Amino acid sequence: MRAMVFDAPGKPLRLADLPVPDPGPGEVLLEIDACAVCRTDLHIVDGELADPKLPLVPGHQIVGRVAGGGQRFAAGERVGIPWLGWTDGDCRYCRSGRENLCDHARFTGYQLDGGYAEYAVADERFCFPLPESYSDVHAAPLLCAGLIGYRSLRQAGDGERLGFYGFGASAHIVAQVARHQGRRVFAFTRAGDEEGQRFARSLGAEWAGGSDERPPEELDAAIIFAPVGALVPAALRALAKGGVVVCAGIHMSDIPSFPYELLWGERGLRSVANLTRLDGEEFLRLAPEVPVNTEVEAFALDEANEALRRLRAGEIRGSAVLTL
Fold first, then answer.
1. Torsion 164-166-167-169 (CA) sign
2. Tell me, what CATH number does 299's domain have?
3. Are residues 280 and 295 in the same domain?
4. 3-class secondary-structure state, position 181
5. Is the pLDDT of residue 284 over 90?
6. How far, in Å, CA of 266 to CA of 157, rounded?
7. pLDDT, tens digit, for every residue of 166-209?
8. What pairing do the DSSP bridges indicate for beta strands 2-5 and 14-17?
9. What is the H or E stretch that residue 242 is in?
10. How many domains is the chain partitioned into structurally?
């Protein structure tokens, strides 16, 4: 099979011819149709996440059809493979409904080979049936951008006035969910990104501006999708008393020191880590009800390096998706 392989930080992915993997007990073999490109993939190839499997096939927003193995899905059935690829099921986190925090978890496209390839294997317990109303390309971003965005929205509480710092793959999905819930959305982009601000307004944001600006009124909650630590004090400054800032990414640059008065007033600061299968089941039922429309830009498999470059440069509107 053709696959894009990551060998070491600082090196571009290479196109390789690899054996089709054999599914083990409880695993399914998928013939891949699409795999969305995530900022986490960028953190891995840029060396910002430690100890990936090497060599590695990246990618964890995988849509494909069952080509063998397993018992849960029928041959030819379309399923999705997300970031969370395996947990031990026995630790105190797994036993308390927090499998996303499992100390021994293994992640697709990080410790397990992922979807920048024509085939992949996955533990069938962690795969999801996908809503029929989405094409392969438009379903792929739901599997991480959507799932992490949804978990972040839940962690932000029920506040009406929501700020999104960074308006990319996750924010463009969760903004639609927030508007469906009757909330008000305030979008923050890179300074001067007028196209990104127009995109946010087209999806229901009532205000959009640069991340160096203050919104026209205080926020009840803010979700930081951009991996920029300096946005934490900026978001706290925009927050009403009792509000919360949620850091949605797996990696962020260092957070600068800030005066305690920004946190005082029962403001909260928390992170989101990974996802649970329950998150996936809930969100994939909700997405077609909203309905969430994913905006995508398609790339061929051998264009993965270009997709990553453009994501790094902030040149992708919505989600980049590799098609096979």
1. negative
2. 3.90.180.10
3. yes
4. coil
5. yes
6. 14
7. 999 999 999 999 999 999 999 999 999 999 999 999 999 999 99
8. antiparallel
9. strand 239-247
10. 2
User: Which pLDDT band, with edges at 50, 70 and 90, does 10 fall under?
Assistant: confident
- Mean pLDDT for the stretch of residues 255-268: 98
Residues 134 and 282 in one domain: yes
Q: Assess whether 62 and 151 both reside in one domain.
A: no
How far does CA 226 lie from the centroid of its chain? 12
Query: Alpha helix (H) ranges present in 238-303?
Result: 277-286
Integer Cα distance of 306 and 309 in angstroms: 5
Q: Are residues 139 and 159 in the same domain?
A: no
Q: How many CB atoms lie within 10 A of CB 97?
A: 9
d(CA 46, CA 24): 31
In terms of domains, do 304 and 239 share one?
no
Contacts of 314 by beta carbon, 8 Å cutoff, 6+ apart: 168, 190, 193, 196
Residues in the chain: 324
* Residues 187 and 234 reside in one and the same domain: yes
The tokens 């995530």 sit on which residue? Answer: 38
SS3 of residue 263 by DSSP: coil
Q: Are residues 78 and 154 in the same domain?
A: no
Is the confidence at residue 158, as pLDDT, over 90?
yes
Claim to verify: residue 89 and residue 129 sit in the same structural domain: yes
CA dihedral 256, 258, 260, 262 (to 10 degrees): -110
- CA-to-CA distance for 147 and 170, rounded, in angstroms? 8
The domain of 237 spans: 147-271
Cα distance between residue 83 and residue 102, in whole Å: 13
* Closest to 293 (Cα-Cα) out of 65, 141, 78, 80: 141
What CATH number does residue 254 fall under? 3.40.50.720
